[in-house]
Amino acid sequence: MSAITPLYANIDPQQINRIQSSPSDAEAKQASTQSTGNSTVDQIKTDATMNPSITEADLIANEKFMAKWWEFQQKEKSSAADLLSETQQVLDDIAKENPSLLDKAFDFTYKNNEIEIVDHNLSKEEYHYLKAKLNANEKLVEATDFLNLSAARENTLKKNDGKVYTKEDIEGRIHVLDIIEKAQKRTADFEAFLDPNIIAKPYDKRAMFHKEVHLNALDILKNTSVSFKLTV
Asked: How far is CA 144 from the centre of its chain?
C-alpha cells in the first residue's frame, strides 16, 4: 500500500534550506489557519512596503509553504506515536497467540512496500507468522513508510550536498524495535535529569531529550544517515 500523499511528497527540501530559522509549532499553525480575507492582504501589503524586495506573491507563497511544512511536522509526530502504539499492539497480540516467539531475537524495518523482519533467529514458520502479523497492521505500515520519508528529508536538509534524498535511500536502515528501546532510554535519562537531587553537568545532553518516548524516537530516526551502503 502507498502511505505517502502528494501533500508531503511535494514539499521542496531546497525551499526548506532557504528558510533562515524555523518557526515554532504555534507560529506555523497560526500561518496555516490565517484568514485570506482583507486583513491578511493588508498585512501582506504592509510587510511588502517595509521591505520593497519582498513582493505580495512572495509572502503569500511563503505563508502557504509554512502551512504545508507545519502539517508535515504534525504528521511526523503522529506517525512516531503510531509507530510505538501499534508496535505495542502487535506485541500484545503475539503474547497471547504465540508467546514463545517473544523470547526470540528479531527486529523489523520497512522496505520494498512492506515491513520486513531483520536481525532474527526465527524459524521459517515464525518468520512468516510475524511478518504477516506486522503487515496486517495498516497504521504501523503507514507509519514506518512515512517515517522513511521523514528521515530522507532530514538528510537532504542536513547534508546540504545538493542531493535530494528519497525514502528509498532510507528503506532498511530504520530498525524499529532498536529505535524504540533507545527512545525509552532517552525518556528515562530525561526524567533522571529532572531529579532535583541530582546536579546536572553543564551542557548535559539529557536536557535535549523529551519526556515523550515517541518524540525521542522521532529524533533518533530523523538522524538515520544514508552515508553508507546498506543491504538488508
From this structure: 9
